[in-house]
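A.,

Following up on our hallway conversation. Structure tokens first:
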């Protein structure tokens, strides 16, 4: 019997950072009505699901990842009515909508925390992680925040410290408290009842911390100036075994609503990452796979090792996924350069598993230059080079002042990337050799060719050192993906395969039969080839 695949297995996810996608009301900040206005573009592009970074009421200390009310919409972004209208239209267009769920911490302005910090006797005291000072009056242990400094904040009123693994305005919830769990499960129900198609769960592997509050080991190689989140090993603050039970509970709840997706944000080495599928595949459907984001060197050997290692480590029945970029890390086109970013896109969209595309990467958008005085991100407060603002710049729709994100004359909340006059939707839609047309063509082929979504994956040996070559196969139909990860021409010879048809080159200038016994890839060229024999 043919295996039936879920929508999130064959589909492509597109991440929208709502502040930066489309401003409909002239305040310089993107909003839900703006996203609604641009749905036709996403449909045209050919993606299947939209994941929205947080849209809930928030003081914006961490741009929405500090939530003051889990069951409403931030006024900057619109209203619940705007949300319902967006969800309705997304569904009408046959797409899905995935929300960001942030269970590890709330805003310090959330009424739960306001109540919790009001006194040691508060009925919600135990909703957060409070601790007495150490003997010398300092923080209870050495845990550091991802944004720098101690993860503990002293509260004068009650004489205790509260834990915040991120900003001081993001107190960590106490997930050992069953009442907290129930309150948060009700949040999931609220949005599922409204019809959302799933969740991306923020820092899901960090929800439980060591009950004994033991010190984390410091990383000896860390030096001031390195990213603050790399300072310590999260031995007692991350990946604690008890977290799995909570994830199973959440997954069961989500499953009870039918065909929904449950994605976990997890930065862990591959073997530990795999445990989040769950022993019985009963945890997250997709533990985000950030191997490409974390890759220190972009070359064929490193990429192949990364893919083969991940494929090999996948538990039986577990569905793979790939990510090139997100709102936390430098954009792919800035990391690997414009030429190689097409190779990266071809890789993302032809590997086995669900791809997640970060808004603007389909255009080849690069990090914006953000002057120090215009920076907002708390992660950049100690050192601007770690600010995430550059990868969050507004979507580039056209070459007008404001790039179509805001009307000319209105200042956007972050500056536009300098290249917006060339790199934008309108210009690229009219240029047959653009990054956008390349991505759209790739998405169209992916949709038309089952081998690219559900086929097997085999990497090919004996290729030039600078090339990564693999085959996707489904019911006897085979496709070769040959990627030249260098800026020099490379000659390939595939002894057992003779004829092929090039369906797409990253340079968009050849569709022809090729003799695969003797075949050349030009500098920075990748080809998707249908194997003829
Ligand atoms: C991960 C999110 O992706 C990031 O943007 C945020 O700052 C932290 N979690 C804290 O919520």
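Then the amino acids I'd put at each of the 533 positions:
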């Amino acid at each position: 019997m043919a295996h039936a695949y879920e929508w999130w297995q064959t589909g492509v996810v597109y991440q929208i950072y709502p502040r930066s996608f489309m401003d409909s009301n002239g305040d310089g900040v993107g909003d839900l009505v703006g996203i609604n206005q641009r749905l036709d573009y996403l449909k045209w592009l050919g993606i299947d699901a939209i994941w929205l970074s947080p849209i809930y009421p928030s003081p914006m200390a961490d741009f929405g990842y500090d939530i003051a009310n889990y069951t409403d919409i931030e006024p900057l972004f619109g209203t619940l009515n705007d949300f319902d209208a967006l969800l309705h239209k997304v569904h009408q267009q046959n797409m899905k909508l995935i929300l960001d769920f942030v269970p590890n911490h709330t805003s310090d302005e959330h009424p739960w925390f306001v109540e919790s910090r009001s006194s040691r006797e508060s009925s919600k005291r135990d909703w957060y992680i409070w601790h007495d000072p150490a003997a010398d009056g300092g923080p209870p242990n050495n845990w550091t925040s991802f944004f720098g400094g101690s993860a503990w904040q002293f509260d004068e009123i009650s004489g205790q410290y509260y834990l915040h693994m991120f900003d001081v305005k993001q107190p960590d919830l106490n997930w050992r408290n069953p009442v907290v769990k129930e309150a948060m499960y009700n949040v999931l129900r609220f949005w599922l009842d409204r019809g959302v198609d799933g969740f991306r769960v923020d820092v899901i592997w960090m929800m439980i911390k060591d009950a004994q509050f033991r010190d984390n080991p410091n990383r000896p190689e860390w030096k001031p100036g390195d990213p603050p989140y790399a300072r310590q090993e999260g031995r007692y603050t991350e990946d604690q075994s008890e977290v799995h039970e909570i994830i199973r509970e959440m997954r069961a709840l989500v499953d009870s609503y039918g065909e929904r997706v449950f994605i976990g944000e997890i930065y862990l080495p591959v073997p530990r990452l795999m445990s989040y599928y769950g022993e019985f595949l009963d945890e997250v459907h997709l533990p985000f796979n950030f191997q490409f984001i974390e890759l220190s060197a972009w070359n064929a050997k490193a990429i192949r090792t990364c893919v083969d290692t991940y494929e090999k480590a996948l538990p039986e029945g577990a569905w793979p996924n790939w990510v090139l970029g997100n709102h936390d890390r430098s954009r792919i086109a800035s990391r690997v350069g414009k030429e190689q970013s097409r190779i990266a896109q071809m890789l993302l969209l032809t590997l086995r598993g669900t791809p997640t595309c970060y808004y603007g990467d389909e255009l080849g958008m690069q990090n914006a230059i953000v002057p120090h005085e215009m920076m907002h991100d708390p992660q950049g407060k100690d050192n601007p080079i770690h600010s995430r603002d550059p990868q969050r710049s507004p979507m580039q729709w056209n070459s007008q002042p404001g790039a179509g994100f805001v009307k000319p004359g209105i200042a956007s909340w972050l500056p536009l990337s300098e290249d917006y006059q060339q790199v934008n939707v309108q210009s690229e839609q009219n240029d047959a050799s653009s990054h956008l047309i390349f991505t759209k063509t790739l998405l169209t082929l992916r949709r038309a060719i089952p081998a690219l979504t559900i086929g097997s994956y085999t990497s090919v040996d004996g290729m030039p050192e600078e090339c990564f070559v693999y085959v996707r196969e489904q019911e006897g139909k085979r496709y070769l993906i040959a990627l030249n990860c260098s800026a020099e021409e490379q000659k390939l010879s595939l002894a057992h395969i003779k004829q092929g048809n090039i369906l797409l080159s990253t340079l968009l200038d050849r569709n022809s039969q090729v003799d695969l016994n003797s075949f050349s890839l030009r500098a920075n060229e990748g080809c998707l080839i249908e194997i003829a024999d």
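The chain has three domains: 10-105+178-443, 111-163, 456-531. Curious whether your intuition agrees with the design.

B.
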